[in-house]
Amino acid sequence: MKTILMFMIESCPHCQNAFRWMEELKNENPAYGDIPLKVVDENIEADLARQYDYYYVPTYFVDDIKVHEGVPSKELVRNVFETALKDI
Asked: From residue 79, how far is each of 22, 50, 68, 82, 85 by CA, in Å?
């Protein structure tokens, strides 16, 4: 299992949708709730955010590999969780 790093901005409506879908998916599959998740508000942790290559939020990295950037859907968020569960 790998760690998910999510970059977001509190005022971003797409980020709020992503959070809602993350909760729904964790309820549907409890294994998703066991995945280590670090959420970074780029306005608060700007120094950390500048270390990563992305332009839009929400953006998800799994083991420092970008797996999604920009407008999410529930299926795209599911893919982030599934990527984190894979043993590579």
From this structure: 11, 25, 9, 5, 10
Per-residue pLDDT at 45 exceeds 50 = yes
Asked if residues 8 and 58 have their Cβ atoms less than 8 Å apart, the reply is: yes
Query: Is a pLDDT exceeding 50 seen at residue 19?
Result: yes
Q: Which two tokens stand for residue 46?
A: 């700007």
Beta strands 59-62 and 65-69, pairing class: antiparallel
What is the rounded distance in angstroms from the CA atom of residue 21 to the CA atom of residue 69?
A: 15
Residue 72 reports pLDDT greater than 90: yes
Q: State how far the Cα of 73 lies from the Cα of 88, in Å rounded to an integer.
A: 25
